[in-house]
Amino acid sequence: MEALGWWLMLVGLLRLASVWVGFFHIGALRHGVFSNTTMECTSTNTR
């Protein structure tokens, strides 16, 4: 049962890390969109 505890702790840490990374990624995306909107528009149009 000790392995189950370690597994649950590992999964919990991974989920917490993914939430933090997603939060910061969204913040960085918003900052990029607000700081240079023209670059965002041209890069999306060229794709």
Tell me what the structure shows.
- The protein contains 2 helices and no strands.
- The protein is an all-alpha fold and 47 residues long.
- The radius of gyration is 18 Å and the shape is rod-shaped.
- The mean pLDDT is 78.
What are its keywords?
single chain; 47 residues; mainly alpha; 94% helix; rod-shaped; transmembrane; membrane; transmembrane helix
Question: How would you summarize what this structure contains?
Answer:
By secondary structure, this protein is mainly α. The protein is 94% helix and 0% strand. The protein is built from two helices and no strands.
Note the topology:
Elements: H1 2-35, H2 37-46
Keywords: Membrane, Transmembrane, Transmembrane helix
Transmembrane segments: 6-29
